[in-house]
Design a protein that fits this description.
Strand content: 15-25%
GO biological process, one term: negative regulation of DNA-templated transcription
Radius of gyration: 22 Å
Number of helices: 5
Strand order of the largest sheet: 1-2-3
Cofactor: Zn(2+)
Number of strands: 6
Function: Negatively regulates transcription of bacterial ribonucleotide reductase nrd genes and operons by binding to NrdR-boxes.
Largest sheet: 3 strands, antiparallel
Number of domains: 2
Oligomer: single chain
Zinc finger (unnamed): 3-34
GO molecular function: ATP binding; DNA binding; zinc ion binding
Bound molecules: zinc ion
Helix content: 40-55%
Shape: elongated
Order of helices and strands: EEEEEHHEHHH
Length: 162
């Protein structure tokens, strides 16, 4: 970032603020050479680092297509998926980082997907959290059951009261 006054090629960030919609960062900068201050408005690019080491811009569409497979045959609409992808983007941008691992995005998808559909969640989690045994599934299912009990929705246990 060149100083607009003396063209010094370097500058120091003295303050950063994210715009309300989270798509831009307003930075207050100071030139170390002439000492003058100026403001820049920069688009918040969010890069996703893939396992291969290459990066690409974050895309809600990629989130949707990644989850759609896990939702096959489940009562999940395209609208549900779009809303979920929006929540994922908000969560990721909320981290305030410029780049994120694709695996981390997978983990960010889990909580909203879990609210959306538990079966789709288990399918997706089995891939992203690398379930490699029945016990991994059992642990995840036990977690879902415990949450249900906390919400008072556990109606499928026979002989309640035991
Ligand atoms: Zn300067």
């Amino acid at each position: 970032m060149h100083c607009p006054f003396c063209r010094h090629p370097d500058s120091r960030v003295v303050d950063s603020r994210t715009s309300e919609d989270g798509t831009a960062i307003r930075r207050r900068r100071q030139c170390p050479k002439c000492g003058r201050r100026f403001t820049t408005l920069e688009a918040t690019s969010l890069a996703v680092i893939k396992r291969s080491g290459t990066s690409e811009p974050f895309s809600r569409q990629k989130v949707v297509s990644g989850v759609r497979k896990a939702c096959q045959g489940r009562p999940v609409s395209e609208d549900d998926l779009a809303k979920m992808a929006q929540r994922v983007e908000e969560a990721v941008r909320g981290l305030g980082v410029a780049e994120i691992d694709a695996d981390e995005i997978g983990l960010t998808i889990l909580p909203p997907l879990r609210e959306l559909d538990e079966v789709a969640y288990l399918r997706f989690a089995s891939v992203y959290q690398g379930f490699d045994s029945l016990e991994d599934f059992e642990t995840a299912i036990a977690g879902l059951r415990a949450d249900r009990r906390m919400r008072g929705e556990d109606s499928d246990s026979p002989g309640a009261g035991g």
